[in-house]
């Protein structure tokens, strides 16, 4: 990956088209390059935090970050940007500048993910051009592209706390779980018999869990949107009256549910297999 990433990975001739309008856009990218772009962070998680590895990661962020984003945009796997950078944030040392760089890039992706995922040139035209002037990504990369639009008085100074507005609901929203492109994932999921008050993604992004006023928990496959009985999950829940708040869903060796049905009582459940629809036990 280090030796083969470059500007305009898809040989795109016009910035006026979306990726979907260009047939076979990804064919010019070698398969081993695509694989590296998809999974480098997964391999990094298994490495110790040592100086040679740290230097390689720092060099990648310093010089090839935007070209890596190009590959993921071209392949229409934009969700891997946030998954990879989140893994990098976890891997990096607390005081390492790499953590700051990765966190800044996560803000960049959240703010401009929609245009950048739909049209690769907008990594530069919409993302880099409008990134806050005090952000690391703007200060580090902007001057490398002298033909970009320059905003002197209207450019944000730092990342705004509001990084996107999502439209589409026709009634009140009680719980959210974010896709990094800010686009809906599949069709609406139907299965509860009352209001849904809690939702969440598994750490690997493959499953969605929801809790409802009907006193049930449902698990869904994020890819197929089907109700899914799933092994090797841990769920930590807090029950207060009938409202269910989901705090964490992570992969583990066995399935455990911890609930608090009142300020004074905690109940634990353990079972190796989690059914697709489970009563809360109260």
Mean pLDDT: 76
Indicate the radius of gyration in whole angstroms: 21 Å
What global shape is seen? globular
Instruction: Note the gap between the termini.
Output: 53 Å
- Uncertain stretches of 5 or more adjacent residues: 229-282
Number of spatially distinct domains: 2
Strand content: 15-25%
Order of strands, widest sheet:
1-2-3-10
Number of helices: 7
Largest sheet: 4 strands, antiparallel
Provide the helix percentage: 25-40%
Q: Give, in order, the helices and strands.
A: HHHHHHHEEEEEEEEEE
Protein structure class: alpha+beta
The strand count comes to 10
Question: What is the secondary structure topology, with strand pairs?
Answer:
Blueprint: H1 31-44, H2 51-63, H3 65-74, H4 79-91, H5 97-118, H6 122-130, H7 136-141, E1 196-201, E2 207-212, E3 216-221, E4 230-231, E5 233-240, E6 243-251, E7 255-262, E8 265-271, E9 273-274, E10 277-279
Parallel strand pairs: 5-7
Antiparallel strand pairs: 1-2, 2-3, 3-10, 4-9, 5-6, 7-8
Explain this structure to me?
- This protein folds into two domains: 19-144, no CATH class; 196-279.
- The strands form three sheets. A four-stranded antiparallel sheet has the order 1-2-3-10, with no helix packed on it. It has a four-stranded mixed sheet with strand order 6-5-7-8, with no helix packed on it. Strands 4-9 form a two-stranded antiparallel sheet.
- Helix content is 31%, strand content 20%.
- It has helices at 31-44, 51-63, 65-74, 79-91, 97-118, 122-130, 136-141, and strands spanning 196-201, 207-212, 216-221, 230-231, 233-240, 243-251, 255-262, 265-271, 273-274, 277-279.
- The chain is of the alpha+beta class and 282 residues long.
- The chain is globular, with a radius of gyration of 21 Å.
- The protein starts with 30 loop residues before the first helix and ends with a strand.
- Helix 1 (31-44) packs parallel to helix 4 (79-91), helix 4 runs antiparallel to helix 5 (97-118) and helix 5 (97-118) packs across helix 6.
């Amino acid at each position: 990956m280090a030796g083969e990433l470059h500007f305009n990975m898809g040989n795109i001739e016009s910035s006026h088209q979306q990726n979907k309008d260009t047939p076979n856009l990804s064919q010019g990218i070698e398969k081993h390059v695509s694989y590296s772009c998809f999974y480098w962070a997964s391999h990094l998680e298994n490495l110790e935090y040592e100086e040679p590895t740290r230097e390689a990661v720092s060099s990648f962020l310093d010089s090839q970050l935007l070209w890596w984003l190009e590959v993921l945009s071209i392949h229409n796997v934009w969700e891997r940007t946030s998954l990879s950078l989140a893994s990098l944030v976890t891997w990096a040392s607390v005081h390492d500048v790499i953590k700051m760089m990765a966190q800044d890039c996560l803000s960049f992706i959240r703010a401009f993910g929609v245009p950048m995922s739909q049209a690769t040139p907008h990594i530069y035209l919409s993302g880099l051009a409008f990134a806050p002037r005090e952000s690391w990504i703007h200060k580090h990369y902007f001057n490398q592209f002298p033909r970009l639009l320059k905003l002197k008085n209207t450019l944000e100074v730092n990342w705004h706390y509001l990084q996107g507005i999502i439209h589409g609901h026709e009634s009140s929203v009680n719980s959210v779980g974010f896709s990094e492109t800010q686009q809906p994932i599949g069709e609406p999921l139907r299965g509860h018999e009352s209001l849904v008050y809690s939702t969440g993604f598994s750490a690997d992004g493959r499953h969605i869990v929801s809790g409802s006023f009907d006193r049930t928990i449902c698990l869904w496959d994020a890819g197929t949107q089907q109700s899914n009985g799933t092994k090797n999950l841990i769920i930590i829940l807090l029950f207060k009256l009938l409202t269910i708040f989901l705090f964490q869903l992570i992969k583990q060796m066995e399935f455990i549910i911890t609930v608090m049905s009142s300020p004074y009582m905690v109940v634990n459940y353990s079972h190796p297999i989690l059914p697709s629809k489970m009563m809360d036990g109260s």
